[in-house]
Design goal:
The chain is mainly α and 245 residues long. It has helices at residues 2-16, 19-41, 45-76, 80-84, 91-120, 127-154, 157-174, 186-191, 196-208, 215-243. It contains 10 helices and no strands.
Length: 245
């Protein structure tokens, strides 16, 4: 565990040395909150609570797709990455350290959302629901972390960045993150249950309020979890094999 924490520490320090990475992780979800949530739902406690949960899911997707997807692909292009693979510690501490670093950036991206929700809206949450929402965040983070890992280990940097950008908005819009529960256009409601973003946001809505999840969405999310785990592991092993061939 100490090796994983050491890897996480230095990866985090490397990230914060580029302020734009930290600002970007926090800015886009906060901007979406300010422009799309505060003007329309600020005075409605239930709507603003659900919208804050949607924006937290939005922030998690942003961090995972870009921090893991584009970030890993960029690291693979550097000379340092193949060298670290030769170290006797093995791949697990590096893998765990990368995930811990990503989780730290996720927390950074969520802090402005919580501050805006507390200061500018009527959103509220009980201590019990706060604990439940933390559990939902953990589940959602695992799914999209695996997606980012798969992208990062499958593709070179420019392709990974393009794929992350191409996936992000369709997943957010198609999953219904940009509308209140049940208020998305009909075609979105039809495809949403099959997207991982929908199952993720429904878990968040259920955690913060009385929303009843669609078990098709949750089942699809579980299917995506398994599929992405397989693809991420295969991509990592394939990349490792190419490095040492």
């Amino acid at each position: 565990m100490s090796l994983a924490l050491t890897h996480a520490k230095y990866q985090f320090l490397e990230g914060v040395r580029m302020p734009i990475a930290v600002i970007g992780a926090a800015f886009f979800p906060a901007a979406a909150m300010i422009f799309f949530v505060v003007p329309f739902t600020a005075d409605d406690p239930i709507a603003s609570t659900y919208a804050t949960a949607s924006m937290i899911t939005f922030a998690l997707m942003t961090t995972c797709l870009f921090q893991f997807g584009a970030g890993i692909a960029d690291d693979r292009a550097q000379a340092w990455d193949p060298f670290t693979r030769t170290l006797p510690a093995g791949p697990l501490p590096r893998f765990a350290g990368r995930i811990l670093c990503g989780l730290a950036f996720m927390v950074i991206s969520m802090i402005p959302l919580l501050v805006i929700a507390a200061a500018a809206t009527e959103a509220h949450i009980t201590p019990l629901r706060f604990v439940a929402s933390a559990g939902a965040v953990a589940v959602v983070a695992v799914v999209f972390t695996l997606m980012g890992l798969a992208i990062g280990y499958l593709l070179p940097f420019k392709a990974a960045l393009a794929v992350a950008q191409l996936l992000f908005f369709p997943l957010a819009f198609g999953g219904g993150l940009l509308a209140a529960p049940g208020q998305s256009p009909g075609f979105v409601e039809a495809i949403a249950p099959y997207l991982p973003s929908r199952g993720a946001v429904e878990l968040m809505w259920a955690a913060v309020g009385d929303f009843r999840v669609n078990w098709l969405s949750v089942g699809a999310l579980g299917g995506w979890l398994v599929l992405l785990a397989v693809v991420a592991a295969w991509a990592y092993r394939g990349d490792q094999g190419r490095r040492f061939r």
